[in-house]
Amino acid sequence: MSDAPNAQPPKPAAGGRAGTKRELPERFKAYKHVWVVVECEHGAVHPVSLELLGEGRKLADKRGVELAGVVLSGDSITAAQTAAAAFEHGADLVYTVTAPVLAHYRNETYTRAMTDLVNTHQPEILLLGATNLGRDLAGSVATTLRTGLTADCTELAIDDEGSLAATRPTFGGSLLCTILTLNYRPQMATVRPRVMAMPAREPGRWGRIVEHPLDLAEEDVVTKVLRFIADRESDKAQLAYADIVVAGGLGLRSAENFQLVRALAEVLGGDYGGSRPLVQKGWITADRQIGQTGKTIRPKLYIAAGISGAIQHRVGVEGADTIVAINSDPNAPIFDFAHLGVVADAIELLPALTRAFQAHLSVNRLAG
Amino acid sequence: MLTMGPPMAEDSLRKALTYGADRAVLLTDRAFAGSDTLATSFALAAALDKVGREFGVPPIVFTGKQTIDGDTAQVGPGIAKRLGLNQLTYVARIADLDPAAGTITVERRAEGGLQVLQTRLPVLITMLEGVNEIRRGSLDDAYRAARAQVVRWSAADAGITDLASCGLKGSPTIVKKVFAPQGRAEPVRQVPTIDRSADELAADVMAAIFQTQPALEEDLLRFAAGQ
What is the separation of C-alpha A289 from the centre of its chain, rounded to a whole number of angstroms? Predict the structure, then answer.
């Protein structure tokens, strides 16, 4: 990328590359503070919003600015409860927009409320969870505001020049890239659930509430919510929050062998999943996919059997306390980030592990 | 069908024609190189506008939930916003379409359940993968696809004059650096496998896990006791 020949030479700046660092337009200079959209559909605060508040707190402290939660909801009780959760997880202030048209998420109403709020109170950074709601909303808000949006970040930081440095895997590649939004505000990013650690709750922590009006009546909204069909409890995959996860990859060689993964998970009282190729082959359903485009997990123990460990998978499991990798290829990239490695055929080792844990647990239970 | 990409994207369009599509347009121009999602939605929205003028305004625009490389899921919403289309994302099922009334009803995947939404046409729908049967094209479709001309549009052909909104220039995001992920500071501890049977190796692995995380053994014993 090159500037026009007669443009002002870019100011030399530490860490910046000539040509990529430009001056922030005057109209954006007042943009300040870090915002996190706090999702509260159906009365429950989405955990990813609290995880983002923890991350937003660090960014705000580094910038020396405030951290604000944004609560869009249909009634004042939900707004107050969600604001309280935001304060307890690090917010200094909470913007609330409360209107009946916001009771259920709709792109139209939420985009309107959000862009209005951004244009009025002007944040420099706006973070959303990469949930269906967050992605739907972020894309519309960024397009309306004509600003940059980086999806599915795995790391957020403030660079030497005060910009949001958003790191994510490269598109389709095996590398990571750091993306900046230099000349537009707000700098927007989404982060998937479980990618960031949940901050400790500080009971009784409180802050300021700033109410913002929304002049939008139901008859002016085109899209109507006819019904909400809640998922049955059994349908909700608990994978993302499981303490122990066993997963399989193409090293299992056949769909039938995937039951070896399930058997070990069952003995350990854990959950199970697989890498992306297994979903593409139809061996497992999409809600069992572990990795960047599936579930991000942070279990105490993660056992990866026959998974090579491409970057897409790696970023989804790196938060695990202990990663055990079983792969017959000693050069598989999974050994770059596993804690314990076993160069072995997963098809032979998995049943042996199931037997070993079964025996150990039953013997010790009887002894105890 | 419309796609934006390098000339080789024609292969994908031709394949899609064999599934029964009537017409394919490839939006391709060096001016689009380096587009982020905002610049991509600008170009595709402009091309859709032109599609509307040339072939009639589509009442429904479908996009995938997300690309298989970037996975951002931002381009569909971006196009909808730019064209002023009603937006239905993560659609699992189209429950009803009433062309006379100009309405559509869908089931949308939301947090914790399905939203049944009704909106007015024209609409942009981002569809979940795996919810529809893939329709196999007929032999006629295959012949037609082989002969069909994939229409190629440059930026100028699509009526795009604002090149500052395209490609790198039109992208507010900048890739500052690309790097390989670092290995862990502490290298992986390999469990020795030479001369060990599967059962011996399993015992070694279990011991190594409990050594790494002693609390885990207690958790597991408690779980086993509760069963």
Answer: 15
Asked if the Cβ–Cβ distance from B205 to A42 is below 8 Å, we say no
* Number of Cβ pairs < 8 A linking chain A and chain B: 272
Q: What is the largest CA-CA distance in chain B?
A: 75
> Shortest CA distance to A112 belongs to which of A222, A34, A33, A26?
A222
Query: For A180-190, what is the mean pLDDT?
Result: 95
The DSSP output letter for B112 is T
CB–CB contact A107 B179 (8 Å)? no
Q: The complex's ipTM?
A: 0.86
Closest by Cβ to B173, choosing from A148, A236, A340: A148
3-state class (DSSP) for residue A120: helix
Task: Supply the pTM of this predicted model.
Answer: 0.86
Spatial strand order in the sheet of A208-211: A149-150, A187-191, A125-129, A34-37, A67-73, A93-98, A208-211
- H-assigned helices in A208-301: 258-267, 276-280
How far does B14 lie from chain A, in Å, by closest CA? 22
Query: What's the pLDDT score for residue B206?
Result: 96
Quick one: which of A258, A268, A253 has its CA closest to A355?
Answer: A268
Strand boundaries in B99-206, DSSP class E: 103-110, 113-120, 123-127, 151-153, 173-179, 189-190
Contact A362, A342 (CB under 8 A): no
pLDDT digits (tens, 9 = 90+) for A103-136: 999 999 999 999 999 999 999 999 999 999 999 9
**Residues in chain A within 8 Å Cβ distance of B129:** 286
Q: How confident is the model at residue B55 (pLDDT cuts 50, 70, 90)?
A: confident
How far from chain centre, in Å, is Cα A278?
22
